[in-house]
Amino acid sequence: MRVEHVCARLGLVPLAYLWERDQKDLLADMVHAGIESVLVKVAGAGLGVEHLGKSLQQMQPTLLKLVRSLFLCLSFSLPSGPI
């Protein structure tokens, strides 16, 4: 599990259970809830350095388009300590 190893080295806890949810619904729920997050790394077809630093709200139309055209897996991680 590459994601778990990378997160462990960085002191992050992967929220892998989110992979079980419909990605479009999850993205909509996160944007609607006002979760403040930005893209800090891209490693998928259709995403490039021009997307770095953009919020989920800004990226929602692009991500939805990519989910429809490709198998795009969105993953989210949070710091493991107190927030």
Summarize the structure.
The chain has helices spanning 2-10, 23-32, 56-69, and strands spanning 12-14, 77-79. With 83 residues, the chain is mainly alpha-helical. A two-stranded antiparallel sheet has the order 1-2.
Could you say which structural class the secondary elements and strand pairing correspond to?
mainly alpha
What is the general shape?
globular
What is the count of β-strands?
2
Strand order of the largest sheet: 1-2
User: How would you state the average pLDDT, rounded?
Assistant: 78
Beta content comes to 5-15%
User: What is the oligomeric state here?
Assistant: single chain
Portion in helices = 25-40%
The radius of gyration is: 13 Å
Instruction: Give the end-to-end Cα distance, rounded to a whole number of Å.
Output: 25 Å
| Integer tally of domains | 1
Secondary-structure element pattern, one letter each: HEHHE
- Helix count equals 3
Question: Would you give an account of this structure?
Answer:
The chain has a two-stranded antiparallel ribbon with strand order 1-2. 40% of the residues lie in helices and 7% in strands. The chain is built from three helices and two strands; from the N terminus they run H-E-H-H-E. Helix 2 runs antiparallel to helix 3 (56-69). The protein has one domain (2-78). The relative contact order is 0.23. The chain has 83 residues and is mainly alpha-helical.
